[in-house]
Amino acid sequence: MTARIHRHDLSGGPEPGELAKDLEISLAEDVDQLREHPESIDSAFGTSTLILSARSVVDPVAAKAETWDATVNAMQLGTTMFALTNATEGTLERRINQRTYTLEALGNRTFAHAGNWLTAFYLAAICREPDRMTELCQVPIGNMRAVPGETDEFNYRWIDTLQTYWLRREGLAEKLTATIEASDPSRVTIAPQDLLQGVLYPPINLFYHLVRRDTEGFAPALEEALKLHRAYWTLTDDRRQDIDGAIALGPLAIASWAFDGDFPLDVESEYLPKHLLQHSWLGEYPT
Questions:
Q1: φ and ψ at 217, to 5 degrees?
Q2: Residue ranges in 87-211 assigned as alpha helix (H)
Q3: Is residue 21 part of a domain?
Q4: A Pfam family name for this chain (predicted)?
Q5: Per DSSP, what are the bridge partners of residue 102?
Q6: 93-109 burial, b if ≥16 CB within 10 A, otherwise e?
Q7: What is the mean pLDDT of residues 65-78?
Q8: Is residue 287 part of a domain?
Q9: 2: left (phi over 0), alpha (psi -120 to 50) or beta
Q10: What would the pLDDT profile of 9-41 be if each residue is shown by its tens digit?
Q11: Crossing angle between the packed helical segments 41-58 and 16-32, to the nearest 10 degrees
């Protein structure tokens, strides 16, 4: 029997269709300006993920081309951010918003942190972009550790686990165990506990079921992840109206791998847009 996890009501915030259109105009201008100001890619990336959230409210199953465009743009900007910050000299050619841009390398920047890496990687996984996932997995974790600001250790261990898995390096089981141990609430001192339990940890738990080929346990874990996501984003009135809660990005990424691995998911939700989960748009145009 398929479980149905409904997305919470987002009607109290800005009208999502108009918001998306306004932001898309702004994003096109921001992307063109990257030629002269590549350091502004952080802002462009943030705008692109907001557009994706807005589009997913208008189009909950991602059946419209505009939603796929938003997903691809966010993925391209996220991976480009880390390509530019992982290079210290020269230029790189990057495809963004259906055009090719020649952009100057930036070297490590404050925005090349663990949180943005995870968002970029989740987007690349959702878009089924193996080359971009490989590119992201070649970013040294030391670069992210060098970025100013405090981040809980489990985030770095989670990134190490994903890089090890994708690049087929040795030690996956040990690294996943270390990630799970480091994400114990008693050891997490920076991220708020509700953020940990509702957003940050569920993808790790889903990955645990994925790599164990636990086809019976994955769907219940996915259902629980979506319930936790909804609980987090409805805890306060401000969060309830925050369009960032429209998609469960981490669970969607891991569920995409599970779908491709023929796991029975048995879960439907607007938090997991159907045609992104099932890669219905794959090959629609060069990305």
A1: -90, -15
A2: 114-126, 130-137, 141-145, 153-167, 172-182, 193-195, 202-211
A3: yes
A4: Imm49
A5: 93
A6: ebebbeeebebbebebb
A7: 98
A8: no
A9: beta
A10: 998 778 999 999 999 999 999 999 999 999 999
A11: 150
User: In this predicted structure, what is the pLDDT of residue 286?
Assistant: 87
Q: How far apart are CA 81 and CA 139, in angstroms?
A: 11
The two three-digit tokens of residue 134, written as one number: 């490989």
Residue 35 CA to residue 127 CA, distance in Å, equals 25
Structural domain boundaries enclosing 146: 9-277
- pLDDT (mean) for 151-180: 98
Phi, psi of 129 (to 5 degrees): -110, 80
Instruction: Find out whether 171 and 140 touch, Cβ atoms under 8 Å.
Output: no
95 touches 87 (CB < 8 A): no
Residue ranges with strand state E in 139-261: none
Per the CB < 8 A criterion, the answer to whether 68 and 62 are in contact is yes
Averaged confidence pLDDT in the chain: 97
Nearest to 68 by CA among 243, 46, 76: 76
Question: pTM score, two decimals?
Answer: 0.97
Task: With respect to residue 284, please indicate whether it lies within any of the assigned structural domains.
Answer: no
Is the predicted pLDDT of residue 246 greater than 80, yes or no? Answer: yes
Q: What local confidence, expressed as pLDDT, does residue 95 receive?
A: 97
Portion of the chain with pLDDT greater than 90, in percent? 95
Mean pLDDT to the nearest integer, 96-114: 97
Contact status, residue 278 vs residue 261, Cβ threshold 8 Å: no
Q: What is the pLDDT of residue 1?
A: 82
Which residue shows structure tokens 């350091």?
A: 39
Q: In total, how many domains does the chain have?
A: 1
